[in-house]
Amino acid sequence: MKASKFYISTLREAPSEAVITSHKLMLRAGITRKLGNGLYTYLPLGVRSLYKLENIIREEWNETAGALEFKPTVIIPGDLWKESGRWETMGPQMLKAKNRGEQDMVVSPTAEEAYTAIVRDGLDSYKQLPVNLYQINTKYRDEIRPRYGVMRGREFIMADGYTMNADDESLDESYKAYEKAYFRIFKRLGLKIIPVRADSGAMGGSGSEEFMVESPIGDDTLIICPNEKCGYAANVEKAECAQDDSTNKKGEKVSATDKPLEMVETPNVFSIEDMEKFFDESPKMFIKCLIYRVINSSLEFKDAAGAEKWKRVKDPAGDYFPLSYVCVCIRSDLDVNEAKLAATLKASEVVLAEDEEILEYAQAGHGFVGPMTSKCPLVVDYSVVKDGVALMHDAITGAGKDGYHVKHVEPLRDFTPYINADVRTVKEGDKCACCGGTFYSRKGNELGHIFKLGHKYTKSMHVTFLGQNGKPQEPTMGCYGIGVDRTLASIIENNSDDKGIIWPMSVAPFQVCIVPIKYDGAMKEEADKIYEALRKAGIEVLLDDRNERPGVKFADMELIGIPLRITVGDKNLPNVEFKPRAATESELVPASDAAEKAIQFVKDELAKLQA
């Protein structure tokens, strides 16, 4: 391709709204242009890289994961979302509309419902399973604060694989095949990936793993064990740690007490810091109790305190409580992980209760909530009780009466968990439960996520097949997603310098650029020879034949980030400059050898990414 026939639209400076490297460089290099808030158009340079990225995903999912591509619509009938139960629970991110027939429609934020409906209509026998399909398609989520360009836009491209399997064993096989494909995809893209255990969130299901890249502007916090043999890594929403002891201010473990509860007047003692000073004791001796409002919980809450007040909604996807409440009890030096809590309660969301709600369910204001007087189910963290064993003794907690706390509290003697679970937020410095190593944390961006969805959608949407025993059975599902735009932006975040992008060979818009100092005379003749030789060899080459100053051409090519530049200048002929974009210096090579050397360079760079 000659540059005079190609649309190159570079900027000297990025717009002020662009604050991260990829956003700045994608705008400056003419990869994307903003069309609206959270809405970005790919320009011709960007499209070339975007399609290469998509094709790498296709190749690996076709070959390694054994999948077949399908193409669902972007607009999905709302009835399918009502069947799955996510019409109400997906929240305001989902853009809803009505067609002229007043039928509810959805601008697809994800494709589980569409896939399930499509397969359901053609599934009869176990002989058809597994059904392994994927799509690379546009999605829309009405982000409240779109930012960082395509890293978090409203409209975006996702690659989604879906499997429908006869049983859990078959699902495991599909899951592992996709996992292998993910490692191959990101290796070919030149990205160092950290696979981490993750929360399934609104997707539902059991097993879940994220593929992250370290990033200072990452939305996620990763908890990582430094022991390479161990290899434990998890999103903070899912991370678990080794149990640490509850100790007094002398650092001693405390034994169970037979002392009765003692009410203590504690005027103006509201915070944990206030309690430390008042009681002259370690925060590891206090039990913190918090009332949470729970949204759309599918738990039954059978015989639970307070449950008789809550309305339970009948739904084809499974009955649920739109609104319920719990009291979370946790050692006071620890924080509640709300993602873990929501998962424990099978809820779409949990939020701290308002003052009037706290008074209703705790009979006291914030700071004085106690487990003994709570009028809603107790969710007790493993730091307090685990597997029927109390891990805190002779503790202090709220009395359920404003201005009072209680001493000599013995969990299991004085209160019993309704649910006992790990709802603790793991942080840097905690110990690894696998090997005892000391965790460190890093910010990360999620590029891919794989889920074992189980029967969440096949049950709610009534999918069955005739099993080997001749009886109807429900298939189990897996879901495998990669954020295409976000991955492209992450490649730039990880491959750039102060001059611009440094594309890996696998996704560069062009593999080689030829820059004649002036496209005239002997320089034109040599540039054209090299250009034609590269084209015949199948190399993607851009010849900068524009009538621009050399400095403009060099700046544009470095900003755009083409992996190899061949400069043809009259001062160096019959030699030309050979400069890889990532190199600090160029070398002179005979013009007659330049094409062959460039071909080998491209092959070698691609081979490194394939290794």
In percent, how helical is the residue content?
25-40%
Report the sheet-strand fraction. Answer: 25-35%
Nearest-angstrom radius of gyration?
30 Å
DSSP, total strands: 33
Sequence stretches where pLDDT stays below 50 over 5 or more residues: 200-205
CA(first)-CA(last) distance: 29 Å
Derived structural class: alpha+beta
User: Average pLDDT, to the nearest integer?
Assistant: 94
| Tally of helical runs | 14
Major beta-sheet overview: 9 strands, mixed
Anisotropy-based shape = elongated
Describe the fold and architecture.
By secondary structure, the protein is an alpha+beta fold. Helix content is 25%, strand content 27%. The chain is built from 14 helices and 33 strands. The strands form eight sheets. Strands 3, 7, 8, 9, 10, 11, 12, 23 and 26 form a nine-stranded mixed β-sheet that branches. Strands 13, 14, 15, 16, 17, 20, 21 and 22 form an eight-stranded mixed β-sheet that branches. Helix 12 runs parallel beside helix 14 (591-610). Mean pLDDT is 94; it is low at 200-205.
Concise description?
The chain is of the alpha+beta class.
Topology:
Blueprint: H1 21-28, E1 32-36, E2 39-42, H2 44-63, E3 68-69, E4 75-77, H3 78-84, H4 86-89, E5 95-98, E6 104-107, H5 112-120, E7 131-140, E8 155-165, H6 168-188, E9 194-197, E10 208-214, E11 220-224, E12 233-235, E13 262-265, H7 272-279, E14 286-297, E15 321-331, H8 338-344, E16 349-352, H9 355-362, E17 378-381, E18 385-386, E19 389-390, E20 395-398, E21 404-409, E22 419-421, E23 440-454, H10 456-460, E24 465-466, E25 472-473, E26 476-483, H11 484-494, E27 496-497, E28 500-501, E29 512-516, H12 521-536, E30 541-543, H13 550-560, E31 564-568, E32 575-580, E33 587-590, H14 591-610
Parallel strand pairs: 3-7, 14-20, 15-17, 17-22, 29-30, 29-31
Antiparallel strand pairs: 1-2, 4-6, 5-6, 7-8, 8-26, 9-10, 10-23, 11-12, 11-23, 13-21, 14-15, 14-16, 18-19, 20-21, 23-26, 24-25, 27-28, 31-32, 32-33
Helix pairs in contact: 1-11, 2-6, 12-14
